[in-house]
Structures are given as C-alpha cells and as structure tokens.
Amino acid sequence: MSVRPIFDEAFKADLKEKYLAYKKLADEDSKNDSESDPYKSKYAAMEILKELRHLLLTCSTTSDAEQYKVDCMLGIVYLDEGILALDAEELNTGEELLMNCINTLNKYDVKKENILQPFREQTLTAKEYIDKAVRIYEEYQLKDEADNTPIDAPTLFEVEDASTNSTKDELEKLHTLTLYYLAQVYGALEDLFKSAIYCHMTLKRQLEMNDYDSIDWSLNTATLSQFFMESKGFKQARHHLAAATLILQKHEDHLKSLSSKEPADEAESELIASKWEIYNHRKADVSRCWAKYGILLMRDSRDRLIAASQGYPSCAADDTNVKDPKADTTPISQKLLDSFKFYSIEKDIEEIANNITDKYLLDFDDAKKVFLNVQKWLDEAKSYYTLEDQASEYVQIIQDMSELYRYLIFFEESDDRQAKMHKRRIDLLEGVVKQLNETYYLSVCQQIWIELGETYSEILNIKLDRLKDKDEKPTVHLITKVNNLAKSAILNYKKFIDSVALSKKDNRFPEEFVKPVLTSYYHIGRLYNVFITGDKLVKLENTKKSWEAYKFVAEYCKKNMKPEELKETEYSLSIDFADLLPVKIAKLTRELSN
C-alpha cells in the first residue's frame, strides 16, 4: 500500500468521513442497541477507529508541525478506542490502547485526564497520571495568550470550525474532571480531607462555569457537607448545605415555569412529572442532611459542655471550623478555610444559612431553636419517605427524631419535661415498630427494642431519683408507675435478646451481638431489683430473676472472654452481683419460712 501525504485533500476527506461515522456509531447508534447485543455499535465504531489508526500510522509528513498534528490525531484515536474497549468490558485491550495513547503523546505532554486506570484499582498509578495532568494544565495556564489556544478533535479532523472559546471551555471542563478524579483517588487512599478539598474544587468550578446539573450538584454538595459536619466543621457544612438548598430552589422555580405551560403531549407531561418526582426525592435527601447537621451540632455541643465540666478545656474549644483528622492538633490555615466557599453565590445563601447557627449551643434556648429547625426538616423528609413506600428510610427518620429529643433532654433542667420528652420518644418508636414485619426488618426492630428499653429506663430513673429526694413513702400511683416502667423496659430488652440466636456449634452469640446482648441482660438484672413491693414472695421472685440475668452474663464472660475484656463495667458488676445475690435470696427465703 502506498504512503499517503497528510495534506492530500482526498486523504483529509477520508479521515473526516471515518471520524464522523465513528462518532455517529459511538454517540447515537449505541443508545439504541438491543439488550441481547449491547455493544454492537461500539464494536463497529472500534473497527472504524482501527481504520483511522492505520491511515495515520501509514501517512507521510514533511515537517515537525505535520507530525505533531498526526500524533495528536493518533493519540485521540487510541484514547477513543481505549474508552470504547473499557465500555465493552475488554479491560486488557482498553489498558493497552490507553498506554499507546500515553506513549504517543508523552513527548508533547498534552492533556490526559481521561487516561485513568480504575479497572485494575491501581490507585497510586492513577494518581501519577492525574497529578501529571494537573501539572500540564498549570504549565499551560502560564503560557502567553497567543501560544495557549487549545485544539480539539473536531478541529484536527476538520469536522467543524471550533471557536477558541469553546475549545478553552472544553479544556476547563477537562481540568474540572481531573479534580473530580483526584477527589476519588484520595477517597480510595482514605485521605478524606484531601478528597473533600478536591470535591469542593470540582463543585466550585462547575458552579462558576455554569456547567452542572442542578439536582446532581445539590446532592453532591449536601453529601460533602456531611464530611465537614462529621469533622466538626459546622461553618463549612452550613455553607455547603445552604448552597445546595439555593440551587434546588432555583431548580424548583424552573420546574414551576415548565408546569405553568400546557404540555405538548402526554410524553412531555410524563417528563415534567418525572422531573418533579426527582426533585421531591432529592429535596427530601437535602432536608435529611440539614437534619443531620442539627443533630450533630446538638450532640457535639452536649459533649463539649460535659468535657468543660470535667476540666478538659481543649475539648471545649469554640472553633467550629473543619478539622483534618490526619493532622492531629495542627490547625488548618485560614487561606484553606476560606477556599471552602462558593464566593459566586455567597450573598445569595446568607438568608438560608442564617436559619440555623454554626456556633456551639450553650443552653436550652439555643438547643430549642436548633430542635425546631431539625423537626421541620425531618417532617419534610417524612412527606416523601413514607412507611408504605420507603419503610427503611422512614424508620431511620423516626429514629433521628428520637435522637433529636434525646439531645434536647440534656439541655432541659426540669425533670417533668425530661420525662415528657422521653415519653414522646417512646410514642414515636413504639408507633413505628408495631407496624414493622419483624422477619423482614429484624435489624431495625432490634435497634428500636434496645432504644425503648433504654428510654423506659431513663424515665424510671427520673421517678426513682424523685423518690430518693422526697424521702417519704411513695404513693400507690407512683409505685404503679415505677413498676410499669420497669416491666416495659424488661419486655423490650427481652424482645431483643430473644431475637438473637446462640450458635449451635459453640453456644456463643455472633460477635457483633455479644456486647448488646450481655448489656441487655445486665439491665434486666438491675430492673428486677427496682420493683417496689411489700410482698416478700414477689420480692424473692424478682431477686431470683435478677440473679439469673446477672449469672448468665457472669457465666458467659468466664467461659468466652479474656481477662482484659472483663473490665467492662456491665460485665464486672454482673459477676459481682452473681456472687452476692444468693446471700440476699437465702435471707428472703428464711424470712418467708419464719
């Protein structure tokens, strides 16, 4: 076969025709491939790219400029072939083609974000390529304006006239994609702080370039906020949640505008309805992220006040900026903290952000304001996630509500109001667990039974403390209340215990259940001892049941645990009471005999 010159008109026309044919197959026809032959069009596109590759490898050039153009086109062909091979799950072929792309372009150091190797989970190798792509971009930005006009594939194959602005925009989008890849790589390397930095940079560039899908951007920004709030960065978390809310509100306005017009046909009507469904779904998710923000702020505020009361000033710091979990006590620079902002919409989100504080809470008034906001957000989420359609998510929202009350109780000084809030928790949890199928939702039911046992016990403790403070004979009503609370707590702990089976092989509980089961037995042992009764026979029966619960814990621990594990308070106390209660039982038995 004769070698063809690259600037021969017939040769250029051949390249253009083949490139257009490849693009049609890869971008359009592949969408209509059947499930039985899903890669038909992509394989056809790969065949055309092979022909293009052969043409480029066998053409003749007369200057370095011509060779540069040929190598750029060849690099694009290798890249596109590699991507198609990966799409068709031909991993080895895809890897080989991408390496050919790198080798062809190495001498020019052109942009290579798409050359990533997740298919082998070669995270460090992938990071090397991405770091190089970032370095190339930064070097490119330093070039003179006249010397830094990018050229894209359509321009090289003379498919269309590409404007300077559009190719520059594409280059900027590719750099945004590079930053996204860096975020994924650092996430895979478990450097969550650096991953968060590059996630934010990606979102910030998408916003500034107006290159984003409103739903995806809002959800990704709200998701990133969870990293910040879990790292005690409530300032940054609130800022991101407010930004997510603003973009969702704009999207809602757009949907209202669409809905105000008469749809052209049924298909358009269904499309608009689908967009509303997606919006309502993601709005509920963002509301849940706001709720989590408030719950964590209440929890950390509680922990901070407890730490301060115990003389740990370092734990009681006022700073609510994000902390790098890998940097120990090293503070993050103000420049980096300032970079975690969306400056282009900063003023627009102020009103949204100011609905809730980003400072630690000091008293009940502070906590009540956060409580009411979280309650509102959880109600919004509950309007989408219903028990009938999304049972697991609905139950989680109810558990969040219970947790919200639990943290508010810490700030409440009145015993009566504390007991009422605990009762509200019980109503929420019992209301939902009664409606769940224990077979299908066993794990969730187990969580709720334990929480109910704990909550009934909390109210019981309030009543018992009141009895001690009054130092007078309890009324019949109070005795009945105390005994009913103890019975309810025991009932729920037993439901949990009965739901966990011992292994037939070694008569042991599954590892993840050992502590909760033994702790439940410990609480049952304590609860049988708090019943108030003047009947010594009933008192003897309750003491025996208490001893049986403690004895179970003691025997399980001695048989299955190492000495250092027995230092757990519940375990050591159970062992002590298992030894002491027989004396009390013997004494009660003698008294009854006499």
UniProtKB/TrEMBL annotation:
GO terms for cellular component: cytoskeleton. One of its GO terms (biological process) is neuron projection maintenance. Keywords: Cytoplasm, Cytoskeleton. Pfam families: KBP_C. Coiled coil: none annotated. It comes from the Eukaryota. InterPro entries: KBP (IPR022083). It is found in: Cytoplasm, Cytoskeleton. Its main location: cytoplasm. Belongs to the KIF-binding protein family. This is KIF-binding protein.
